[in-house]
Specification:
Blueprint: E1 7-8, H1 11-15, H2 28-31, E2 33-37, H3 44-56, E3 61-67, H4 71-77, E4 82-86, H5 103-106, E5 111-114, H6 121-135, E6 140-142, H7 149-152, E7 161-163, H8 167-174, H9 178-183, H10 185-196, E8 198-202, E9 206-210, E10 217-221, H11 232-245, H12 250-272, H13 286-294
Helix pairs in contact: 3-11, 11-12
Amino acid sequence: MPPRTAQTIDDALLAGWPLPQPDAGGDKEVRGHVLVLGGSHEMPGSVILAATAAMRAGAGKLTIATGASVAQTVALAMPESRVIGLPETPDGGIIPGAAARLDRIADRVDAVLVGPGMQDDAATAALVRELLARLGSTPLVLDACAMDIVARHEERFEVPVIVTPHAGEMAHLTGGDKRDILADPDRFAISAAERWNAVVALKGARTVIATPGDGKLWQHEGGNIGLATSGSGDTLAGIVAGLAARGATLAQAACWGVALHARAGERLAARFGVLGYLAREIPAEVPALMEALARQD
């Protein structure tokens, strides 16, 4: 495979790659309906963070599917959302077969995010396989333990999806060494993108985004160490899913999502300091950042 040269995701690239904009006379359906599937009795906050970020990225309609034990808590925290409670395994996952409970909305959503805050890796992988058979070409973002499907089932997706591993997760998913991945993220991202037929956003201080088939590769450097905090990855996944629900391609949603997430961290660091701002504060920075980038000549 010939070497690829990574394009840098900067303001100029983003300005020349504008996000889809809803018609001014449209309604919430026009802005996109996002389904976020995640959470568990130990981590209900993760799905709340991701769902909030998806809405801040511009999606107009939100449905959350989560464990029945925390569904009411999530519903109270997210009054903008419809919340569907799903039966759980003893280990805190969603039971196999639960995807059928989502059939009534599967053809009415514009993007799906699976993984934030989920437990029971085996049950989650089984659930993802069920969803793949139901979603068709609907954009799908896999985060956290939902990505484990590629390790457990050596999955090559029929329709491309987005996966968002950091180096440690990539090591688990591929059997590689984390140190090798950190030393050469481009190679691992490109290989995984081709192997899985997925847009791979390999997260780090330098995030690399690779697409399958067309040979495209992007890189982003920015943000700060403050983004390395609990819940930050959930917000990134939510931003990406929200952009995909608006009509962004998988590659565009990944590139813009990474850039917006990093710039949100920079704004928060300027106000609070580099260390100590919270993941829950990241989504609120996104709308103004999108507006500022859209106004560039």
